[in-house]
Amino acid sequence: MVIAVAAGKGGTGKTLISAGLAQALALAGEQPVTLVDCDVEEPNADLVLHPTIESHEEVHVLVPEVDIETCTGCGACARHCEFSAIAVLRGKVMTFPELCAGCGVCAYVCPVGAIREVPRKVGTVALGRAAVSLDGRQGTVRFVQGRTEVGEQRSPPVIKAAKAHCDTEGLTILDSSPGTSCPMQETVEGVDYCLLVTEPTPFGLHDLAMAVDTCRRMGVPAGVVINRDGLGDSGPVVDYCRREGVPVLWRLAHSRAIAEAYARGSGLVEALPETAEELAGLVERMRDEVAESGPAAEYPSERKPPAPGRVEASDPDQDAPARRPGRN
After folding, report:
1. Distance (Å, rounded) from C-alpha 94 to C-alpha 76?
2. 105: CB partners within 8 A, 6+ apart
3. DSSP state of 30
4. Which of 111, 181, 267, 293 could anchor a disulfide with 221, C-beta 3.0 to 4.6 Å?
5. CB-facing half-sphere around the CA of 170: CA atoms within 13 A
6. Residue pLDDT, tens place only, 205-259
């Protein structure tokens, strides 16, 4: 099973929930657990899980390189490029690798074969393992983290490379980028279930609605976790979910203990050990939701991996129990 944890806006606790799920399931020890940090522009799951990184893989896309001596300056490449990544000025060709989508059309249409594609590094994928221990129990989380190069504008190739390491035999958790743009959509595409983390604020509700709509358009079943429950009025969020038929799977109360632990680089399970069982139960609820909604689309990792150097371009229960930890 592959679960994406996403959020319509940043700061709702997406990574807190992602890492907490991974830790709780690793402690349960029922199946292999993998966490893939797909927030490749600002990855931070490592700050909570503290993995030991064992290897790195570079991610490349192919961009054009023009043989000036062969080029006739006809401009066919520029006319066919839909991303303005290549231009011809006074018979001279200029390329803009940062804008290139790596589609290869410029090389295909060049009448004299003056363009060849060369690899350009856009990011890296780190692979490792994170140890988890709690009350004498121990477990291990397989850790994958994508990271774009500084200044790189295109994150989907790095997300695709990170998702290629998903373990579809065990349970994989994808920590998505916030928002609903291309990075989030690339992460959510083809997963079994998307867990949307929101907060009881007007902004949280507004962006949750956009995230729900995005998941529906992508054909991915989704449920909601309300984080920092009690900090604001959760009523509008619950009402929205009831109207839209989106299950509220869990409500995590606002707690100073969680904030303090997170600031120290510790996760949810370490701050409130009793949440480990609740998080494991959350996964079971998602399994039930998947069983009711039917199978999702084919997961991208089941496709043949890209060649080296190229990245192919029912009425839900709304009364989820609220956690009410004591004042800390």
Report:
1. 13
2. 80, 81, 82
3. S
4. 293
5. 19
6. 999 999 999 999 999 999 999 999 998 899 999 999 999 999 999 999 999 999 9
* Beta strands per DSSP E along the chain: 2-6, 33-37, 52-66, 86-89, 92-95, 115-134, 137-148, 171-175, 193-198, 222-229, 248-253
Per-chain mean pLDDT for the chain: 88
CA-nearest of 226, 146, 143, 218 to 182 is 218
Residue 90: the pLDDT is 86
Q: What are the structural domains of the chain?
A: 2-59+133-302 (3.40.50.300), 68-113 (3.30.70.20)
Digit-coded pLDDT (tens) for 138-174: 999 999 999 999 988 889 999 999 999 998 789 999 9
- The whole-angstrom separation of Cα 279 and Cα 262 is 17
- Report the residue count for the chain: 328
State percent of the chain over pLDDT 90. Answer: 80
**pLDDT tens, position by position, 76-121:** 999 999 999 999 998 899 999 989 988 999 999 999 999 999 999 9
Residue type, 21: L
- Using CA atoms in the order 65, 70, 73, 79, what is the torsion angle rounded to 10 degrees? -50
Task: Tell me the DSSP string of 68-117.
Answer: TTT-----HHHHH-TT--EEEETTEEEE-GGG-----HHHHH-TT--EEE
Tokens of 75: 């401009």
Radius of gyration of the chain, Cα coordinates, nearest whole angstrom: 22
Residues 196/211, Cβ–Cβ less than 8 Å = yes
Cα(213)–Cα(185) distance, integer angstroms: 12
Give the number of other CB atoms < 10 A from CB of residue 265. Answer: 13
Q: How far apart are CA 322 and CA 255, in angstroms?
A: 12
